[in-house]
Amino acid sequence: MQALVLVGGRGTRLLPITEATPKPVxxxxxxxxxxxxxxxLAGHGVDEVVLSCGFLPDRxxxxxxxxxxxxxxxxxxxxxEPMGTAGAxxxxxxxxxxxxxxxxxxxxxxxxxxxxxxxxxxxxAKATIGLKEVQDTTGFGLVDLEDDGTVSGxxxxxxxxxxxxxxxxxGVYVLEREVIEAVEPGxxxxxxxxxxxxxxxxxxxxxxxxxxxxxxxxxxxxxxATWDIVEGRMEGSPDLAGSGxxxxxxxxxAPGAKVGPRAVVSSDCVxxxxxxxxxxxxxxxxxxxxxxxxxxxxLASGAVVDxxxxxxxxxxxxxxxxxxxxxxxDT
Length: 331
Description:
Blueprint: E1 2-7, E2 27-28, E3 31-32, H1 33-42, E4 48-53, H2 57-64, E5 73-78, H3 84-91, E6 99-104, E7 107-109, H4 113-123, E8 127-134, E9 142-145, E10 151-155, E11 166-176, H5 177-181, H6 191-199, E12 204-208, E13 213-215, H7 219-230, E14 246-247, E15 252-253, E16 258-259, E17 263-265, E18 270-271, E19 276-278, E20 280-282, E21 287-288, E22 293-295, E23 298-299, E24 304-305, E25 310-312, E26 314-316, E27 326-327
Parallel strand pairs: 1-4, 1-6, 4-5, 8-12, 14-17, 15-18, 16-19, 17-20, 18-21, 19-22, 20-23, 21-24, 22-25, 23-26
Antiparallel strand pairs: 2-3, 6-11, 7-13, 8-11, 9-10, 26-27
């Protein structure tokens, strides 16, 4: 089975972390984020993944190389300009099989992809959308699903007063190649706003999937996904579940420092004497100085919190000045 993963976005909602590192290869707990997705796909029989990328593709290749051990073979397709979800698929058409999985590249999930593919085959659909039932649909577009699994239509994003449970597009699809062949080449096209609404009816199916599902595209969601992995709320990380603070073997934590109970200290990080790191992620090579406090924050690779400094709810980029920090409430 083949999968196409869309990893062309700039990750602007995660700035300044993504200033020099593409979101797909930012470390999530103990490995590049995309490695979680590749392992998930491999577990459902995917042996080839087409990566449609645009922002800093060389950096992604440097980190991922040929992929993960025992994982799928990687094919790299580089967009020269943003083309939208369907436009990116059309650009990669020459590499696509007659039937393939397609996924948004900022998705962390343990959905049963095998069940989705089997349902698609039984329905003989042109496209099948993996759906997720959410309890608060505020900010989501909704999908209308018939009892037989036919997607009959779509509704715009609910306003703040329209919340309640409903079915939303999870960003996981099974597609027949003919759907993408019909997309006009060379222009920006959205599969969600243009292609799927035209297919609504017998050719478009939907299946409600159970399991973990998170878009890691914001600092708050990135942190929540981190704790969900460490605390065992997502399948696929039994070696990490319940492990408390995760400290890389090459990190240096002074005996008098306090780390955790929620914390990730990545490779080559330094936590100095008397410092406290709690509810926070330190990415590669970042440093927390003597008696500094870092609470509920993210430190980009190489970021430094000076001695005696205190930060809370912050996203700190590499080489930032002390007063140039994005707080989670200011994004």
